[in-house]
């Protein structure tokens, strides 16, 4: 039997104890060295990181700037309301969550459609509104059931509001959620920090053009948070600065009267102050309600607006290009005087037709108007006079003069997306068409240009600018909608000064010839019925623009589909001797200018000059006689 040596066992045990103890001491030494490294050597570094983790910067979105008209009437403002919001990435089964919410808070089908549209446009981790403008009762009801809905919360948000609804919507525009293209604009302006936390951006109209004035300066809160990221207390706060206020040149009551004058008709109207270029009214009807976009428009409403045959989203005043019809004739006459091609008293014998190159160009009056001088050519709107004049002037002379009046060019108005229209010339045709046989300008094409038909196509704002330039003696101003921008911090005003674009150096005696003839239009010519009994003297010109060719047949409105009927136009300025307002009116498929457009102009001028408010939309004058349709 073998016995263990106790002494040897004890020595081995002590050795193991020593090794274990040494290992423990070594580990503690490592911990101590690491502790010294972290707490002493790296103290400042980790203290900064811990402080950063403890303190979170939360952006505070500023109030968007107000938009008011020239008299201080608020057109766009803000208000605060509660929204019910879902973070899709945290909510689990979205449909089940929304169905559950619908059991305690009313959620309509349009709310669901809007939510789905926002999901398509947004990142999954963003909170998206499912219901906006909750009542206090609805808020309390949700809070009682909040534990059932992870990823759902109540937030207080600022909302844009347009008190006038659809009125002036094409001026104001609307705001929508920030998109990638908006982010690019923000980056270009080096505004990323200022837009942190901002969810909306101007999409059209003044909201878009003056976005960086209206946005304001974001504030922030320094918030202490715990390890779970929950806010513990607010350490400091930097208040946001509200956006600047826009004061417009627009008179919203004049705008309202002008829009209502159209009734249920489509069209556009632009009224300008000739001596400044300030826009008094800019109408495009039908229009839309920009409030629909504030919460994020639902897909069905968006589709209805975009697919509507009435095209309410199109700003006809800036984007619609139309033949000017006989409103072109005063400009043609002024070109003839300026270029020395006609004298005011020089007359022609009008047989009612003009033969050129084997083609017969007909006047609207069978048998013609007899002897016609420049005054009579405008008053009775004699086509034959302008067929001959166009042929004598030539297309390039016409294009050069009309271009100097701003036709076929962007006016530079402070709204994005303006169209150029079409100012025909030999150069334009060479650039427009690809085939050589199409690029050649034929002399016969010039004839119809003279009465505002052919390739001619101009926007209502271009016509308004042109007639305002004539009213102002040849000095052209850039049309603008904003009068001044008020800084909300200092109260200082940045004036949008009238910007003269050019001086045509027109001879006063030539302008006077055109003024007298346009006054004659409303005294004894095609605008006489519309301006009968007016307490002021207005200079005007009616126009009718063909939508399709009659090919020599007589135009009968009742026999033509509504969408193929002629467009009605009217240009005017008043008072004729000291113009305070110049305007252009277009009524799509309205028929004769004297019938549909002139009565609208009369209501607008009556209010602006006399303060008279109409009781109903401008009625179409079915008995009006038009003498300016080709």
Question: What this model shows, in words?
Answer:
With 630 residues, the chain is an alpha+beta fold. Helix content is 36%, strand content 20%. It contains 22 helices and 23 strands. Strands 2, 3, 4, 5, 10, 18 and 19 form a seven-stranded mixed β-sheet that branches. Strands 12-11-23-22-21 form a five-stranded antiparallel β-sheet, sandwiched between helices. Strands 1-8-9 form a three-stranded antiparallel β-sheet. A hairpin with a 5-residue loop joins strand 8 and strand 9 (231-238). Helix 10 (252-261) runs antiparallel to helix 22 and helix 13 packs antiparallel against helix 21 (508-524). The longest helix has 36 residues, at 6-41. The termini are far apart. Mean pLDDT is 88; it is low at 548-556.
- In total, how many beta strands? 23
Q: What can be said about the biggest beta sheet?
A: 7 strands, mixed
Q: Taking all residues together, what is the mean pLDDT?
A: 88
Radius of gyration, in angstroms, nearest whole number: 36 Å
Structural class comes to alpha+beta
Helicity range: 25-40%
What are the low-pLDDT stretches, counting only 5+ consecutive residues below 50?
548-556
Q: Beta-strand percentage?
A: 15-25%
Number of helices: 22
What is the general shape? elongated
Task: Give the terminus-to-terminus CA distance.
Answer: 138 Å
Oligomer: single chain
């Amino acid at each position: 039997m073998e016995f263990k040596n106790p002494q040897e066992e004890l020595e081995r045990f002590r050795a193991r104890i020593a090794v274990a103890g040494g290992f423990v001491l070594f580990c503690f030494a490592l911990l101590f060295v690491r502790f010294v490294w972290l707490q002493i050597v790296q103290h400042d570094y980790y203290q900064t990181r811990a402080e950063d983790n403890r303190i979170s910067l939360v952006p505070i979105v500023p109030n968007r700037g107000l938009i008011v008209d020239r008299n201080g009437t608020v057109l766009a403002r803000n208000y605060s309301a509660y929204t019910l919001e879902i973070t899709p990435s945290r909510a689990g089964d979205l449909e089940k969550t929304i169905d559950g919410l619908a059991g305690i808070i009313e959620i309509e089908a349009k709310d669901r459609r809007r939510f789905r549209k926002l999901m398509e446009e947004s990142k999954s981790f963003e909170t998206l509104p499912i219901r906006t403008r909750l009542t206090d009762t609805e808020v309390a009801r949700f809070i009682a059931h909040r534990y059932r809905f992870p990823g759902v919360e109540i937030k207080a948000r600022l909302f844009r509001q347009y008190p006038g609804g659809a009125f002036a919507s094409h001026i104001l525009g609307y705001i929508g959620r920030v998109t990638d293209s908006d982010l690019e604009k923000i980056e270009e302006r080096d505004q990323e920090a200022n837009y942190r936390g901002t969810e909306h951006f101007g999409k059209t109209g003044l909201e878009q053009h003056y976005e960086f004035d209206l946005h304001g300066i974001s504030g922030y809160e320094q918030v202490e948070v715990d390890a779970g990221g929950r806010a513990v207390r607010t350490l400091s706060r930097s208040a946001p600065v509200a956006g600047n206020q826009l004061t417009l040149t627009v008179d919203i009551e004049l705008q309202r009267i002008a829009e209502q004058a159209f009734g249920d008709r489509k069209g556009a109207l632009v009224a300008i102050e000739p001596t400044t270029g300030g826009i008094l009214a800019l109408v495009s009807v039908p229009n839309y309600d920009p409030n629909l976009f504030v919460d994020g428009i639902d897909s069905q409403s968006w589709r209805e607006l975009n697919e509507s045959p009435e095209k309410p989203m199109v700003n006809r005043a800036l984007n619609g290009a139309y033949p000017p019809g006989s409103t072109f004739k005063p400009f043609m006459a002024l070109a003839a005087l300026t270029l020395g091609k006609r004298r005011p008293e020089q007359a022609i014998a009008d047989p009612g037709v003009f033969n050129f190159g084997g083609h017969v160009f007909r006047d609207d009056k069978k048998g013609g108007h007899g002897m016609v001088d420049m005054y009579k050519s405008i008053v009775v709107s004699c086509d034959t006079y302008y067929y001959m004049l166009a042929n004598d002037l030539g297309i390039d002379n016409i294009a050069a003069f009309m271009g100097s009046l701003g036709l076929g060019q962007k006016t530079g108005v402070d709204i994005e997306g303006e169209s150029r229209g079409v100012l025909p010339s030999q150069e334009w045709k060479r650039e427009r068409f690809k085939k050589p046989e199409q690029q050649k300008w034929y002399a016969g094409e010039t004839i119809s240009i003279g009465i505002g038909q052919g390739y001619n196509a101009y926007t209502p704002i271009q016509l308004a600018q042109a007639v305002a330039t004539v009213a102002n003696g040849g000095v052209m101003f850039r049309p603008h909608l904003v009068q001044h921008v008020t800084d909300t911090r200092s109260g200082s005003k940045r004036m949008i000064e009238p910007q003269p674009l050019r001086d045509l150096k027109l001879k006063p005696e030539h302008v006077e010839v055109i003024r007298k003839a346009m006054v004659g239009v409303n005294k004894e010519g095609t605008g006489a019925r519309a301006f009968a009994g007016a307490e002021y003297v207005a200079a005007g010109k009616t126009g009718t623009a063909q939508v399709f060719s009659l090919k020599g047949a007589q135009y009968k409105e009742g026999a033509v589909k509504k969408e193929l009927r002629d467009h009605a136009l009217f240009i005017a300025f008043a008072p004729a001797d000291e113009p305070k307002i110049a305007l252009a009116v277009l009524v799509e498929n309205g028929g004769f200018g004297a019938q549909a457009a002139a009565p609208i102009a009369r209501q607008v001028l009556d209010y602006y000059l006399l303060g008279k408010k109409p009781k109903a939309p401008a009625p179409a004058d079915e008995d009006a006689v038009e003498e300016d349709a080709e």
